[in-house]
UniProtKB/TrEMBL annotation:
This is Glutamyl-tRNA(Gln) amidotransferase subunit A. GO terms for molecular function: ATP binding; glutaminyl-tRNA synthase (glutamine-hydrolyzing) activity; transferase activity. Heterotrimer of A, B and C subunits. HAMAP family: GatA (MF_00120). Keywords: ATP-binding, Ligase, Nucleotide-binding, Protein biosynthesis, Transferase.
C-alpha cells in the first residue's frame, strides 16, 4: 500500500479498494516503525489524521470526489497548523502552537487531504542539508550516512522512504528542488506569488515560495492544484486563475525548445552528473524536443547576491522573535536588553545567528549601498538574463546540484562550501521563476536531479515535460533499499 502514488491512491479510493482510514493507519504504523532511522518528522498528528481520514471517507460515501480527498500528506514544519506545534526546526518555536492554519494548510484540508504530521527542516529553512534543525539531522534513505538535502529534508526523506506519497515544502533558494534531487523525488517551486505565503513562517519574504514534493510530476500536479491560488491575506499573492495542472500533462514535446546554458557545465559540476544531464537531454530529444545552447552571463554573481539578500530579509523577519510575544523566553531576565539577548542567544542556533549578523550588517547605514543595493542590482541582471533566454526557448534545462548528497557533517565547519552548492537553484528564486527537479539517474548509489525552469506561471509546462520524461524513463520509480 505504501508504494502507491497520490494518483494511484485517488483511483483506489474512488474504486473503494480501501478507505482513507485504512491507508492512514498503514502509513502511521510505517512512520512509527521506520522513521527512527531517518528523523524526518518533528511531530506526528495521529489523532488529527484519523479524524480527517474518517471525515474524508464520509465525504466520499456522500458522493464527493477529488484527487486529494482522503490523501495522506505531511506539512513542512513552517506551515502554521492550528493548535499543533509549528517549530520551524528551531528551539525558539519549540513551544509554539500556531493559533491558526496557514492558507496552504487550510486549502489542502478543505480538499480533504489527511495530515500525518509535521516534517523536520533546517532551522528557519536556512540550510541545504537539514543539519541545522534543533531536532537533529535527517538521514537520506538512499544512504543513511548522507544528508537528504535541505531545507525541506524531512519532507523529502519521508516521501522518498515511502512513509507517505507527498508532502508540502518551501523553496527560498532551492529547498524543494535540491532535496528532491538528493532523494530521487520530483519537486516544484512555483512562480513567486502563485502559492500563498500566509501562515508560512518567513525566512526571506521576497524569495520564499511553497510547493509540492512527490515521487512523480503527476503527483506534483495534484498537490500543487490544492496549494495554488490567490489569497487576499498575502499582499504578494497574484490574482491569476489557476489552470488545471493535471490536464496539462498530455502534451507532446514535439518542437519544444529547450535551452541549455553553457555556464552550467563549467568547473564545479561533477562530470558524472554532467553525463546524466546529457542523457536526459538525449531522452527529451527523442521525444521531439529541440536543444539550443544559451547563456546566462550573470549567473556567477547570483550566490553572493542571494547570500546578501536572503540574510538581510531574514534579519528583519526574525526580529519578531524577541522572547516577549511568543517563542523561547530566557529564565529570570535582569532587564529588557538581557531578555532580548538571552532569549535570542538561547533560542536561535549557530547558522541562524550567523545569517542575522550578516543581514543586519549588510543593511546597516554605510554598508547598505555597497551590499544590499548592489545585490538588488545583480538580482535584476539575473532576471534580465532569463527574460532574454525565454525569448528564444520554452524551458531551460540543467543540473539541479553540482554534486550528489554529501556525507553528514562534511560541510559543517565551512558554511560557504554549503552555500556554493546552491549555484543552480537560487537564480530562479532571485527572478521569481518556477522550477522543477526530477530524477535523472544515480552516482555511487545516490540520486541525481535534472532541473527545468520555465517562464512565469508556466508550472503546467514544467509538469508536462517532466511527466513525458517519466513516461519514458524509470528513475523516479526506484525505491531505496530497506524502505
Ligand atoms: N540553501 C539555501 C539557504 O540556505 C536555500 C534554503 C531554502 O531554500 N530555504 O538559504
Amino acid at each position: 500500500m505504501h508504494q502507491m502514488t497520490l494518483a494511484e491512491i485517488a483511483r483506489g479510493l474512488a474504486d473503494k479498494k480501501f478507505s482513507s482510514e485504512e491507508l492512514t493507519k498503514v502509513l502511521l504504523a510505517r512512520i512509527t516503525q521506520l522513521d527512527p532511522q531517518l528523523n524526518s518528522f518533528i511531530s506526528l498528528t495521529e489523532d488529527l489524521a484519523i479524524e480527517q481520514a474518517k471525515a474524508a471517507d464520509a465525504r466520499r460515501a456522500n458522493g464527493e470526489s477529488g484527487a486529494l480527498l482522503g490523501a495522506p500528506i505531511a506539512h513542512k514544519d513552517l506551515f502554521c497548523t492550528q493548535g499543533i506545534r509549528t517549530s520551524c526546526g528551531s528551539k525558539m518555536l519549540d513551544n509554539f502552537k500556531a493559533p491558526y492554519d496557514a492558507t496552504v494548510v487550510a486549502k489542502l484540508a478543505a480538499a480533504g487531504a489527511v495530515t500525518l504530521g509535521k516534517t523536520n527542516m533546517d532551522e528557519f529553512a536556512m540550510g541545504s542539508a537539514n543539519e541545522s534543525s534543533w531536532y537533529g539531522a535527517v538521514k537520506n534513505p538512499w544512504n543513511l550516512e548522507h544528508v537528504p538535502g535541505g531545507s525541506s529534508g524531512g519532507s523529502a526523506a519521508a516521501v522518498a522512504a515511502r512513509l507517505l506519497p507527498a508532502a508540502t515544502a518551501t523553496d527560498t533558494g532551492g529547498s524543494i528542488r535540491q532535496p528532491a534531487a538528493f532523494t530521487n523525488l520530483t519537486g516544484l517551486k512555483p512562480t513567486y506569488g502563485r502559492v500563498s505565503r500566509w501562515g508560512m513562517i518567513a525566512y526571506a519574504s521576497s524569495l520564499d515560495q511553497g510547493g509540492p514534493l512527490a515521487r512523480t510530476a503527476e503527483d506534483c500536479a495534484i498537490l500543487l492544484q490544492g496549494m495554488a491560488g490567490f489569497d487576499p491575506n498575502d499582499s504578494t499573492s497574484i490574482d491569476e486563475p489557476v489552470p488545471d495542472y493535471s490536464a496539462s500533462l498530455g502534451e507532446s514535446l514535439q518542437g519544444l525548445r529547450i535551452g541549455v546554458p553553457k555556464e552550467y557545465f563549467s568547473a564545479g559540476l561533477d562530470p558524472r552528473i554532467a553525463e546524466l544531464i546529457q542523457n536526459s537531454i538525449q531522452q527529451l530529444q527523442k521525444l521531439g524536443a529541440v536543444i539550443k545552447e544559451i547563456s546566462l552571463p550573470n549567473m556567477q554573481h547570483a550566490i553572493p547576491a542571494y547570500y546578501v539578500i536572503a540574510p538581510a530579509e531574514a534579519s528583519s523577519n526574525l526580529s519578531r522573535f524577541d522572547g516577549v510575544r511568543f517563542g523561547h523566553r530566557c529564565e529570570n531576565p535582569e532587564n529588557l536588553i538581557d531578555l532580548y539577548k538571552r532569549s535570542r542567544g538561547e533560542g536561535f542556533g549557530a547558522e541562524v545567528q550567523r545569517r542575522i549578523m550578516v543581514g543586519a550588517y549588510a543593511l546597516s547605514a554605510g554598508y547598505y549601498d555597497a551590499y544590499y543595493l548592489k545585490a538588488q542590482k545583480i538580482r535584476r541582471l539575473v532576471k534580465n538574463d532569463f527574460m532574454a533566454a525565454f525569448n528564444e526557448v520554452d524551458i531551460i534545462l540543467g543540473p539541479t546540484t553540482p554534486n550528489p548528497a554529501w556525507k553528514l557533517g562534511a560541510k559543517n565547519s565551512d558554511p560557504v562550501a554549503a552555500y556554493l552548492e546552491d549555484v543552480y537553484t537560487i537564480t530562479a528564486n532571485l527572478a521569481g521563476l518556477p522550477g522543477l527537479s526530477m530524477p535523472a539517474g544515480f552516482v555511487d548509489g545516490l540520486p541525481v536531479g535534472v532541473q527545468l525552469l520555465a517562464p512565469y506561471f508556466q508550472e503546467g509546462r514544467l509538469l508536462n515535460v517532466a511527466h513525458q520524461y517519466q513516461l519514458n524513463t524509470d528513475w523516479h520509480t526506484r525505491t531505496p533499499t530497506g524502505f
